[in-house]
């Protein structure tokens, strides 16, 4: 096929779909030779993007899919601000600092304002930084003791992929503890056979990605206390609170999972998940400034002084950070509690509706963890699987993923539904109705030859 040199519309009279640009295939391999009408390009891209899944019905993502008008405007206002230019944009730097201080307080840092923390592009970058600090501190301890530093390991349960990346990119052995039958996360009694003198830390997950429940941070810490009493090994905990960091303080305020647990050295969370900020922001906070080794920190020029930075990126948009601060101010503790409690109530309602179908076993019923549910088939269904159910739901636009649990429960296939800000009770009720209808259709259709129009 010849490469089109696509030209722009010549006249304001042209309908977007009669412009040369729209009458040809869009250039996909070579830069066009000439300019094109911006509105024609805009419209064509906008309609191509309609073919993406509908974010509002994407019940697979933890990430923000609904933002108020003020967030849209602040994002637009900040479009040209680079958060790394602390000298040029001192107020953006100040706003980042305020967010860190507020989160350090929310997560009960004993040092409050004085501790260290920063924004990141998400929990993945935050995990890299948290892991690096653990590795550096372990190496320092080993060097002082005159011991080898070549075989660091990190102990964890069913972690998100970012920890596998951290381990591979930064040369750390990942000791992923297999799930026990009926368990959905790391259990305290499992720790003893995995931690040793080369363990840089244990990752505890507040909001297991696969199932939405919390790992028992305080109980894991207590077991590490017992291990220290017996062996002398002093193993710190990093809490991956990608989702739970912005849920637990509001919905489960009594749960001690944060810096109230003395062994917790650092916490990461995704601002763009239950922090409700638009995509592109995460956070990490250390318990005390001392827990972030000095030689990981770079000093950048800032208003004639210097500003400590720790990041994998350099240039990065400032808008998400500003939007995060807006949300913290806009909602406050009460607002976050109301938003997430409404989601948690809807998740529990969905859990009940799913249980009523009589076919599923809930792995997580929406109580005590994130606003969501996860479930598996109670018994092998007659000729259909959860993957088929996912496909059936998709015909109504719902995106509900099916996937196997991590080892050693990889034979269990589950589905998970997340209830987020912007997903209302009526929507959840409609999903429950469609779930029932889809199951009926699968039961009728299973084994029988497909009728024409079966999928409609
Ligand atoms: C989503 C998630 C991550 C990765 O977070 P991003 O913000 O998408 O980089 C890490 N850990 C857990 C537990 C998560 O749920």
Observed structural traits:
single chain; 456 residues; alpha/beta; Aspartate Aminotransferase, domain 1; 3 domains; 7-stranded mixed β-sheet; 4-stranded antiparallel β-sheet; 11 helices; disordered N terminus; disordered C terminus
Overview of this protein structure:
The chain has 456 residues and is an alpha/beta fold. The protein folds into 3 domains: 1-52, no CATH class; 72-327, Aspartate Aminotransferase, domain 2 (3-Layer(aba) Sandwich); 340-443, Aspartate Aminotransferase, domain 1 (Alpha-Beta Complex). Helices cover 35% and strands 14% of the residues. Strands 1-7-6-5-4-2-3 form a 7-stranded mixed β-sheet, with helices on both faces. A 4-stranded antiparallel β-sheet has the order 10-11-13-12. A hairpin with an 8-residue loop joins strand 12 and strand 13 (413-418). Helix 4 (90-106) packs parallel to helix 9 and helix 5 crosses helix 6. The longest helix is centred in the last third of the chain and has 38 residues, at 319-356. Pfam families: Pyridoxal_deC (PF00282).
């Amino acid at each position: 096929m010849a490469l089109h040199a696509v030209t722009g519309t010549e006249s304001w009279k042209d309908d977007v779909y009669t412009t040369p640009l729209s009458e040809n295939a869009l250039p996909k391999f070579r830069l066009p030779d000439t300019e094109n009408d911006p509105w024609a390009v805009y419209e064509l891209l906008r309609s191509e993007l309609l073919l993406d899944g509908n974010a509002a019905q994407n019940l697979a993502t933890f990430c923000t899919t609904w933002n108020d008008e003020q967030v849209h405007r602040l994002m637009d206002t900040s479009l040209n601000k680079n958060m790394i230019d602390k000298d040029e944009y001192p107020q953006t730097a100040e706003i980042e600092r305020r967010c860190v201080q507020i989160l350090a307080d929310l997560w009960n840092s004993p040092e409050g304002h004085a501790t260290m923390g920063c924004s990141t592009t998400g929990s993945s970058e935050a995990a890299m930084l948290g892991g690096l600090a653990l590795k550096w501190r372990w190496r320092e301890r080993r060097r002082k003791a005159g011991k080898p530093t070549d075989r660091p390991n990190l102990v964890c349960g069913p972690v998100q992929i970012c920890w596998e990346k951290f381990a591979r990119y930064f040369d750390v052995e990942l000791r992923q503890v297999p799930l026990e039958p009926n368990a959905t996360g790391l259990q305290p009694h499992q720790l003893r056979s995995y931690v040793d003198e080369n363990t840089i830390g244990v990752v505890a997950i507040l909001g297991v990605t696969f199932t939405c429940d919390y790992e028992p941070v305080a109980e894991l810490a207590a077991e590490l206390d017992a291990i220290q009493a017996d062996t002398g090994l002093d193993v710190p905990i990093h809490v991956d609170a990608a989702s739970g960091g912005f849920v637990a303080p509001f919905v489960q305020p009594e749960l001690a999972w944060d810096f109230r647990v003395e062994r917790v050295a650092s916490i990461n969370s995704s601002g763009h998940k239950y922090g409700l900020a638009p995509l592109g922001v995460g956070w990490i906070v250390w318990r005390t400034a001392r827990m972030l080794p000095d030689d990981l920190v770079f000093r950048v020029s800032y208003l004639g002084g210097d500003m400590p930075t720790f990041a994998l990126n350099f240039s990065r948009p400032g808008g998400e950070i500003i939007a995060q601060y807006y949300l913290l101010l806009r909602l406050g503790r009460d607002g976050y509690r109301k938003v997430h409690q409404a989601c948690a109530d809807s998740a529990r309602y969905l859990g009940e509706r799913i249980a009523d179908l009589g076919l599923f076993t809930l792995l997580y019923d929406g109580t005590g963890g994130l606003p969501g549910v996860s479930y598996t088939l109670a018994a092998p269904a007659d000729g259909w699987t959860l993957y088929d159910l996912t496909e059936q739901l998709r015909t109504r636009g719902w995106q509900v993923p099916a996937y196997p649990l991590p080892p050693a429960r990889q034979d269990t296939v589950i589905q998970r539904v997340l209830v987020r800000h912007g997903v209302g009770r009526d929507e959840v009720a409609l999903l429950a109705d469609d779930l029932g209808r889809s199951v009926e259709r699968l039961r009728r259709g299973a084994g029988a030859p497909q009728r024409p129009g079966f999928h409609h």
